[in-house]
Design a protein that fits this description.
The chain is built from eight helices and ten strands. By secondary structure, the chain is an alpha/beta fold.
Length: 258
């Protein structure tokens, strides 16, 4: 059975007498430890869907289930990482990373030691006492990832977490994310991105969404061997063919309105 089930999710927003339909009957499942990327045009509703899955927004219709049980409210089993870091400016890197454990009632010594160890795995040893304003965007996003993974969620929800970063930092963090997921207890991932290459590099499956009101136009399996950070996967015939196929699908949808 899938860890996460998304069934016939619909979402519409009302503005006076007008109704703006954003999501039109989206369904899919996520297996244990599976990494799925959601890709589609800007504004098509991917982030809205992720927020519904997280329990931040209610759907207009449909159901989200975790391990077969309805899950339409926020839960520690569904960790959300935003694009713009979402760190507390008055907390240093260590205490930001340990915040979720603090909410869980873990004592200060234990939670800080756990956070310290995981921060070291992403290259932040020595930066534990630095505040968000004192570190780079890439470092802040590493702290956000550590905070989410320390909770050992069943599902990790990532909303363009590397979208605001430069190309080199973005690629480094993609590899670090894959390594963190290898070390963590099996975590399923939903990852929103606008980058086809990023989706291919990270994913087991890619769901391609139509322009608003969005629906899943097509699903692609990524069959490149793992771990992908150990070789130049971009030169693989599978990757080149997949990139072209997804690009053509998105271009055609943009030209014809989905």
């Amino acid at each position: 059975m899938d860890v996460l089930q998304v069934s016939e999710i619909r979402k519409a927003f009302s503005h006076g007498d007008a109704v703006n339909e954003v999501i039109q009957g989206v369904s899919f499942g996520v297996a244990d430890g599976e990494f799925i990327s959601l890709i589609g045009p800007s504004g098509c509703g991917k982030t809205t869907l992720l927020k519904i899955i997280a329990g931040i927004l209610p759907p207009s219709a449909g159901l989200v289930a975790l391990d077969g049980r309805p899950s339409l409210v926020p839960s520690r089993e569904k960790a959300f990482v935003f694009q713009h870091f979402n760190l507390f400016p008055w907390r240093n890197a260590l205490d930001n990373a340990a915040y979720g454990l603090e909410l869980d009632g873990i004592d200060a010594g234990t939670r800080r030691e756990r956070a310290r160890r995981m921060l070291a795995t992403v290259g932040l040893a020595g930066f534990e006492t630095y505040y968000p304003a004192q570190i780079s965007g890439g470092m802040r996003q590493r702290v956000g990832l550590v905070r989410a993974l320390l909770l050992q969620p069943r599902v990790l929800l990532l909303d363009e977490p590397f979208g605001a970063l430069d190309a080199l930092t973005r690629e480094v963090l993609q590899g670090e994310l894959l390594r963190l997921l290898e070390d963590a207890r099996r975590v399923s991932v939903l990852f929103v991105t606008h980058s086809i290459d990023e989706a291919i590099y990270l994913s087991d499956r890619i769901l391609v969404f139509a322009p608003r009101p969005t629906w899943i136009m097509r699903e692609f399996a990524v069959t490149l061997r793992k771990p992908r950070y150990t070789y130049n996967w971009r030169r693989e015939t599978v990757a080149m063919s997949l990139r072209e196929e997804i690009w053509n699908l998105l271009r055609e949808a943009a030209q014809h309105g989905g």
